[in-house]
Amino acid sequence: MEKPPMGRTEPLISNIMWRNLLAQALYQIAVLLTLQFKGESIFGVSKKVKDTLIFNTFVLCQVFNEFNARELEKKTIFKGLHKNKLFLGIIGITIILQVVMVEFLKKFADTERLDWGQWGACIGIAAASWPIGWVVKSIPVSDKPF
């Protein structure tokens, strides 16, 4: 709300947004494809557990990336976080619903329960989006639309 309104001819997605979006998309695609094709052997699990790992990792990647998306250019993704109760509430509800889907709604969600190590792996993979976002925000972009 600090910036003036954009004109009708301005692109909806700025170059800065594209930079951030493409970096996270490439990371998530690489991770999720690796899990899809090598997840069973990496984790030593069944196909159903591997599919649950992929689903869980995908959702958690979105949750972690929401912090990056709060600030398009600033690297301090936690600044002012305590002031945004709605954001924190949405993050909390999303995480609670994800745990319920994976751990308790197995038949409904077609998931398998994950052990602590598998949850830790999903969280670790998803949390990697924070340092990736930090590095990517160091890459300068042109003001001119692509």
Structure notes:
- The protein is built from six helices and no strands.
- The protein has 146 residues and is an all-alpha fold.
- It has one domain (15-136).
- It is globular and about 50 Å long.
- The chain starts with 14 loop residues before the first helix and ends in a 10-residue tail after the last helix.
- The model has no long low-confidence stretch (mean pLDDT 93).
Topology diagram in text:
Elements: H1 15-43, H2 47-70, H3 85-103, H4 106-109, H5 116-127, H6 129-136
Helix pairs in contact: 1-2, 1-6, 2-3, 2-5, 2-6
Structural class: mainly alpha
Q: How much helix is in the residues?
A: 55-70%
Task: Kindly provide the radius of gyration, computed on alpha-carbon positions and rounded to a whole number of angstroms.
Answer: 18 Å
Mean pLDDT: 93
Q: What is the distance, rounded to the nearest whole angstrom, between the alpha carbons of the first and last residues? A: 24 Å
Total domain units: 1
Feature tags:
146 residues, mainly alpha, globular
Short structural description:
Residues 1-138 form the Cation-transporting P-type ATPase C-terminal domain. With 146 residues, the chain is mainly α.
